Amino acid sequence: MKINLSYFRLMLSLALGILSLSSFGQGQQGISVDKIIARVDNYYILRSELEELYQSYTAEGQRAPERGQLLESLIINKMLLAKAEIDSVTVEEKDVDNQLDGRMSYMIQRFGSEKNLVEAYGKSIDALKTELRQQVKDQAIVETMQQKIAGDVKITPNEVRKFFNSIPKDSLPYIPSEVEVGHIVRMATVTKEQRDKLRDQLLDIKKRAEGGEDFAMLAQIYSEDLGSAKNGGDLGFAKRGAMVPEFEGAALALKPNEISNIVESQYGFHLIQLLETRGQEYHARHVLLRPDYNRGTDVTEAIRHLDSLRILIKVDTLTFAEAAKANSEDKMTSDAGGLISDPQTGISRLSLDASMDPALYFALDSMKVGDISVPISYRTEDGRSAMRILWYKSRSEPHTANLQDDFEKLAQIVLSNKKNSALEEWFKKAAGDVFISVDDEFKNYQIFGLTPNGNQ
């Protein structure tokens, strides 16, 4: 099989974003005629998938690549999934659940409320999550495969300098304003009314289970952990330390088939049944009920806590970094002293442009470098209500790229190029391990050097 790699880097970047929420939303428009246009082993690509991907660009006001290029990106995606299946690469269901919660939270913010989202699609939140779950899982597998292929790639400072010196001076990129921003996050607390309501519901479920009703059936009906609910709440075997402490402590205190009291964790309220233990592993199932984070939480304590921290920081009793490490409930940023990083690069310098989270952009618009904001509303990636204070640490002026100011950014480019090279090599080798075919409809496109019927 001869592979045309001229567009490979574009294809790779497209593959990362294929399973997007824009594409998810386009399904509402409907495709009148559908057929299989490509196959990668047991994975099929439908015309509707290609059209949805194309429409996702136009919906965002972007110029879409040619359909042949988009089909290549879909083939890369399916190929990573096919090879993951061959190599037995899997992802944890709880990680899929967390990513799914984050995606749904984004959708809810985008539409303004759960009610607006439900009305727009004509489906319940649970139904939408069920539809989106496999897409999220596939994307997680694709990302795991990419990490497996290129995760060990490293670069040296000399490689960065060599790359920078290879760029013609009149072609050096122009870097927009960048900012460093820190935040300290405190979660809203569940109201007494909401807590009592969920506890009463779970106590009723426990009473029914102990009265002879099937726990698995009750989990299927009532649990809001969609990943395990369809399996009767079954979480499979978990190693010690894999679950949050509250859950694990309660589960390991049970005897086989015993049902716990109500357990509260960061995910909600659990009713747990231990099935068996095996060495350092245990097998449990649960019913999970989540608070209504729009109406069932109270931010009073979060505001009070953040106000107190803000005063201590402003009078120099405490540095922002120290306060974040000790008090922030955003574990992704607390260890870094609260600094917010670009999720794609891991760099704490954020471009001050349309790519920034709108809520953060508009908050910074009314602040000066060095300011610490009053407590402001915040929604976590998994949809929980919270409050946060922001620290506007620094801002750079727009400038032509240079080694001193932009070393981290240049390093990311060099690392990305090196990882792409590793992925290109993998693709050339892996292409012979899977069957790939493309429909005659695309015979005029260069699809990795494929004939319409299959691998060359």
Topology:
Layout: H1 8-17, H2 21-26, E1 36-40, E2 43-46, H3 47-59, H4 67-86, H5 93-111, H6 114-121, H7 125-150, H8 157-166, E3 174-175, E4 178-187, E5 189-190, H9 192-210, H10 215-222, H11 226-229, E6 234-239, H12 245-252, E7 263-265, E8 268-278, E9 281-289, E10 297-298, H13 300-314, H14 320-327, H15 331-334, E11 349-351, H16 358-365, E12 376-379, E13 385-396, E14 399-400, H17 403-430, E15 436-438
Antiparallel strand pairs: 1-2, 1-15, 3-14, 4-11, 4-13, 5-10, 6-9, 7-8, 8-9, 12-13
In short:
One of its GO terms (molecular function) is peptidyl-prolyl cis-trans isomerase activity. With 456 residues, this protein is an alpha+beta fold.
Q: Your description of this structure?
A:
The chain is of the alpha+beta class. It has 3 domains: 8-154 and 411-442, Orthogonal Bundle (Triger factor/SurA peptide-binding fold); 177-188 and 299-397, Chitinase A, domain 3 (Roll); 192-289, Chitinase A, domain 3 (Roll), CATH 3.10.50.40. Helices cover 47% and strands 17% of the residues. The protein has 17 helices and 15 strands. The strands form 5 sheets. Strands 11-4-13-12 form a 4-stranded antiparallel sheet. The protein has a 4-stranded antiparallel sheet with strand order 6-9-8-7, sandwiched between helices. Helix 3 crosses helix 4 (67-86) and helix 4 (67-86) crosses helix 7. The longest helix has 28 residues, at 403-430. The chain is globular, with a radius of gyration of 25 Å. This is Peptidylprolyl isomerase. Residues 176-276, 279-376 form the PpiC domain. InterPro entries: OMP_Chaperone_SurA, PPIase_dom_sf, PPIase_PpiC, PPIase_PpiC_CS, Trigger_fact/SurA_dom_sf.
